[in-house]
Amino acid sequence: MIRFNNDYNRSAHPAVLQALADTAADSFGGYGGDVWCEKAAAAIKSHLDRPDAAVHFLVGGTQTNFTAIAAALRPYQGAICAHTGHIHAHETGAVEHTGHKLLTVPGRDGKLTAAQVAELGEGYRTSPVREHITQPKLVYISLPTEYGTVYSLAELTALRQVCDKYGMYLFVDGARLGYGLAATDATLADLARLADMFYIGGTKCGALFGEALVISNPALQTDFRSYIKQNGAMLAKGWLLGLQFAALFENGLYFDICRRAVEQAQRLKAAFVARGVPLYLDSPTNQQFVLLTAEQLSALEGKYTFEPDHPSEDGRMCVRFCTSWATTDEEIDALLADIARL
Amino acid sequence: MIRFNNDYNRSAHPAVLQALADTAADSFGGYGGDVWCEKAAAAIKSHLDRPDAAVHFLVGGTQTNFTAIAAALRPYQGAICAHTGHIHAHETGAVEHTGHKLLTVPGRDGKLTAAQVAELGEGYRTSPVREHITQPKLVYISLPTEYGTVYSLAELTALRQVCDKYGMYLFVDGARLGYGLAATDATLADLARLADMFYIGGTKCGALFGEALVISNPALQTDFRSYIKQNGAMLAKGWLLGLQFAALFENGLYFDICRRAVEQAQRLKAAFVARGVPLYLDSPTNQQFVLLTAEQLSALEGKYTFEPDHPSEDGRMCVRFCTSWATTDEEIDALLADIARL
Amino acid sequence: MIRFNNDYNRSAHPAVLQALADTAADSFGGYGGDVWCEKAAAAIKSHLDRPDAAVHFLVGGTQTNFTAIAAALRPYQGAICAHTGHIHAHETGAVEHTGHKLLTVPGRDGKLTAAQVAELGEGYRTSPVREHITQPKLVYISLPTEYGTVYSLAELTALRQVCDKYGMYLFVDGARLGYGLAATDATLADLARLADMFYIGGTKCGALFGEALVISNPALQTDFRSYIKQNGAMLAKGWLLGLQFAALFENGLYFDICRRAVEQAQRLKAAFVARGVPLYLDSPTNQQFVLLTAEQLSALEGKYTFEPDHPSEDGRMCVRFCTSWATTDEEIDALLADIARL
Amino acid sequence: MIRFNNDYNRSAHPAVLQALADTAADSFGGYGGDVWCEKAAAAIKSHLDRPDAAVHFLVGGTQTNFTAIAAALRPYQGAICAHTGHIHAHETGAVEHTGHKLLTVPGRDGKLTAAQVAELGEGYRTSPVREHITQPKLVYISLPTEYGTVYSLAELTALRQVCDKYGMYLFVDGARLGYGLAATDATLADLARLADMFYIGGTKCGALFGEALVISNPALQTDFRSYIKQNGAMLAKGWLLGLQFAALFENGLYFDICRRAVEQAQRLKAAFVARGVPLYLDSPTNQQFVLLTAEQLSALEGKYTFEPDHPSEDGRMCVRFCTSWATTDEEIDALLADIARL
């Protein structure tokens, strides 16, 4: 079985494993107060134009989402997200578990628009019974989204403007950020400038595990380590996170391996289109959603793993094929050949 | 100004005030451990066929909703409700504040259907990634709904059946229960039989304040007073609640005064219909939602208070007229005359 | 039975009941946006020198405590309190239920000292592992305390100074504030100047129910009504609270009736002392804690209610006698006579 | 610098690192549904006599503590712990953050006694105002404790009996369980029999990171994966946890490496005693607490890292020396020589 089911089914990039091996005999201070976390933070900040940004390393995505969101909000404030957003659909209500309501907005491609945010902001601003409703205070987006789509620099700028207008925070879930950056004209520096907080996903982008949270907004930096510890997100051996991100960000490895996975995914997409397989939507990143007939499904499912997403109205099944930093050209070539035979 | 804006703009029924006056010189034990709470619970239970039901008196509706819902759920479980449900739309995210996600279902008339509940139940039961999503564990309905509609006995029975099938609790918000009972074929006894918990609203139905929560399901009765106290819902002078409900339930006063308000509201509805004013929907209870033109609005708003609900797509405004136990025939007659002149 | 068991076993002062009767036929706006809440707030503020203070009316003490404390704190911050503090010992963990740790300090008389607070503040400030511990951010005291003792103006000033030094809030639980003010040299104006938030208890001091929360610190005033609503503490018929406090604060009734109860309690204390009954401590307010032998207990308990507090090491029982605004001179005289016969 | 400051300053045992290297090219299913988690669970369960036990792998200790404790408790219930307990003193109020009060008990050696638990249980059982206080429902102990002390089989059995008597759960924090098992007569099988839940620490005992939670009580097993996910404790690449515990538990490596560290620590203790350095207490495990003079401190602190615990009343400093699975005999020998020279 060749795995296209997700981007977290393999260990870590060899450079990351080598970094772990190289330091196996060394001792370090605990809880992220070590030289590797410093190096990694510096490597990440070299891509930003925000010397005042804080960088923290957490273990996983759900954890980073709820820790950061809850740290930013007061109890009567909530987060706006697409109804397909990961925090709404796949995290067992973790944000609500911290006490905060999600204000969901419909959409087909996983994205939020500035207009949708403005509508909620304006509704609250003008409500005569404001104290009876949740204040929309944080905008949660992911880059790329659950459907592989991305926000352009213009779209992110528009979201920032509406956030400024209504006093909201912009938070970017970057669990797959490397794949998103390969497909948008926005850069890490743009994210640091436009978002109050965003994170750089490691787990799905070459690391064993780990997410690097960048907090640009100084008001959200205060005592953030207390939130990390309280939420069980502070790894005792924090240097394990630092050295992984150091390995990924020195020499731009993170960008290279993610760009390659996106190129492979685009080859898949082209092959499906060439074969007449309809796309659910046009994803420019490493996740491809296509509509397969029952016959096509059975032709592929013996040899490849991929994920069902939802039954389509036309009787086909929408499924996801996912490449990753670990996908080989041989794996892609095999699948391309089988797609051509569908 | 004659008030039709809501059903909580007046003090309490004279019988309730008299009961307060009669006991002004007496001393009672605290926190609901008193003879009046006993009497009131007995009076309420005389309408039920559930000698094992527990009756608790709380102060207000939002408080009763989140206290009862949170007491019933485990942290990863959530409540199903209509997207117009009071807990979703008007309580500042109080249920989410207790850590629980609301699973909202669309609908125009404020009601949930058994089929909608079944779909969520089945989705969870068959999910291959159950631990990533919230378990739908409690069905929240209100009787009447925010739009004045009611559930029939058949509809409540269908909801009970789907709850049984999927292991869910049925919770009925009865903030306006008196008005609902006047318009449905379901009785208090039916509610006690079909719902795991429901409450009998006092605040909007003749009391100064107070809600009587009936817990039929023995599994949800355990240590419920601890939940009440922890959530600040235990009135130190609990007898004040007991004697109000005793006054309302001895001799059936509660039913009588609410029925009368519903009859008045039906006269309003008929007058609007006769005058050609479109109804937003056909409400059989004390809240009437009608679509007024700007001209009609200005004709009425100098003399009567009523509440804007939402702008209608046809350019009219949907507004609510609300009668209550305190509405007089003179007030209704005045409004009927003005409606006829619209 | 003559009740000295607590100060919430009777309805309300006749002036409060009269105010309720006088407005029984009137309609008011909901949720505290009414003329009576305005009047009551103005009457209270006439005693303060803080035109910028916000006054909110909530239903009960536990509710006011956790709503206000949780509104002031970030998730990793906690409240310092005496281990006998009401929030620690009698509220079913309501503050912890909002997610905040209590940092308790030992003491016999129910009071916190500035030195105890400073020790916790300094410990946190100098901790090398600050992110692993709770930040002490709010000082909770009650005036009077659970043991009837009070803070002098000098003690309150010292607490304010240590709060300023360590960036902490000072919160005063005034569930029995009227009785406390009769026994300390601090005034309402002093409290408004020295505390960030305090409340004026109504439930135990002449009202049917209700607490008036004064927020002096502007930073804690933002959107406070959202906290009230979210925590189920916003009475639909908010004017019921306003008119009670208006009745109590116009003409100084609140102060008068509480002073009288304190004078009665001091007569009780003198009688116990004269009879050789040891005091647990010397309380200057309406609660008196005395150590009774088994024989003395049985002599009194047939005719009076009073509360056991704890068994004393010398074999006696420490019990509480409590006067209130409703205690009559006849009740006191009867008890004095029986004490003399012990 | 030779590190004796803690037992988490080194990567992982070579066998663990080898297991990671061996699987670097393989693909696995996500979220713990993989062959390695199965193998590891089986290896652990081979030491227990509880075929019905559930084994889950989480990332860290604080996370495991609050996830498990919150899963076991209802909102009005709390956990009993020593005031030196890790959940009380070192986790930023993480348990309270989940809404639960800690009921702390004093003690010098970090241990709870069955009598202390019984006192709290009896106090609640007989309280006339039970709904006003937190129900003590879970007993939290750690093995070994923060001071390196252990519970004997007899002590654990006594705790189990008192838990049974009062309907409490027994939870054992085993962050350093390997070191504890080397010093007590209780076995893993005893823990599985006597505790409702306990965990086997990996982070401090040879793994890179990870804790294996064993849930013996079937009532606490329901939907536990939902709690793990909701609390951000479900590693996407769950097999990384499974293969580490498989490496540690196949062939008993876990027990061997921890026993060795304990033997090294006992040599340290003997050397201190021989040199006349007072012990703070007699620890049979890998943490040693000794009282050093300022002169002794400065003699050692240039060459070794160790942790200050607290200033002793006699003017000395109580410090902790900690060995681990990674401590070499050379490191111990060097320190022994320097102790002899103190």
Can you put this structure into words, describing what you see?
- The first copy, chain A, has 342 residues and is α/β, with parallel strands linked by helices.
- Chain A folds into 2 domains: 14-253, Aspartate Aminotransferase, domain 2 (3-Layer(aba) Sandwich), CATH 3.40.640.10; 254-340, Aspartate Aminotransferase, domain 1 (Alpha-Beta Complex), CATH 3.90.1150.10.
- The first copy, chain A, contains 14 helices and 12 strands.
- In chain A, helix 7 (153-166) links the parallel strand 5 and strand 6 (169-173).
- In chain A, helix 2 packs parallel to helix 11 and helix 6 (114-125) packs parallel to helix 7 (153-166).
- The longest helix of chain A has 22 residues, at 253-274.
- The radius of gyration of chain A is 20 Å and the shape is globular.
- Chains in contact: A-B, A-C, A-D, B-C, B-D, C-D.
- Chain A binds chain C through residues 31, 70-71, 74-76, 99, 130-132, 135, 223, 225-230, 234, and chain C through 31, 70-71, 74-76, 99, 130-132, 135, 223, 225-230, 234.
Features:
14 helices; homotetramer; 12 strands; Aspartate Aminotransferase, domain 2; 17% strand; seven-stranded mixed sheet; 2 domains; Aspartate Aminotransferase, domain 1; alpha/beta; 342 residues
